[in-house]
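Batch manifest line 338
LIGAND: zinc ion
JOB: complex structure
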Amino acid sequence: MSELRRDPWVDRWVIMAPERADRPQPKSITAEWPDASADDPFAEGREAETPGELLALRTSGTLPDQPGWRVRVVPNKYPAVRAEQSGTPATEGQYQSMPGIGAHEVIIECPQFETCLSRLSLSHVQEVVWTYRERLRFHRQQAKLAHILIFKNKGRAAGATLAHTHSQLMGTPWVPSLVQQEVATSIQYWHQHQRQLWTDLLQQELAVGQRVVTVGEHFVVLCPYASRFPFETRIIPRTTESCFTRASETEIQELAELLRSTLAVMTRLHPTLAYNLILHTIPLSEQETAGFRWHLEILPRIGQTAGFEWGGGCYINTVAPETAATCLQDAWESADTA
Ligand SMILES: [Zn+2]
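JOB STATUS: finished
ARTIFACT:
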């Protein structure tokens, strides 16, 4: 049973989840999944090794928790938070805690053993992105939680413990501080200018062009001006929509195409690339706001997060975003002409 504790020093919530220590751990931090395909609990045919499915895109006529699926969503077997948690919020002197109520799901992105999302077919990646939207819609309708974060850990350096390509959904009864900060900054800018911050940032980025990797009909792929990590990349919608649940089918298709291509290009430049993929959308607890815009962030784990970053919350990036964008552009163009 997990517990949420608030750190009064910095107004930050921490999830105490000792059961997650029982997860199968990699034998070596450096070895690259030597026998992962032989021991893959996410593979088709091993459905009994995961909790029962919450959603699956299946061939018609096949049964839940049986083979025949293409994308499958299950509760995390070692959840950091869970829906059925008992207990009540508590205060002890300066300290506050609450039971670890929430949702922790795994989105298994394909039935066969595959480590890279970008190696799946375009139609398959579209189904993965569609699944993100459907799970978010489900939790928004439930209205039990304050925030949903969909993320992906690719590679051990990014925190993955299983090689089979998958994403995770974590729903929490509070809004994580980084998301709060993004939303607050966006709303403040909106109140000052009656314009969306990202509208003005995109206008500037497209005019300058130095950090833009590619431009689609509905999205812009760019390396942010103050990137924290080498090759940090964002996929930003050109619409002013705050909530990913309202992404259209056409937008899902283009987003999948750009995501797949961006990851393929990054992997071409860095073949053993580890990265985190993050979907930021308006928290469930917030009113729909004209100030915020949903987006995808790709955070390659090329550099080290060390003492200065942990101690100061300030990052040292050894690759300028202008250089990263040029490298990605060049690799993108050579892939197109190959
Ligand atoms: Zn963000």
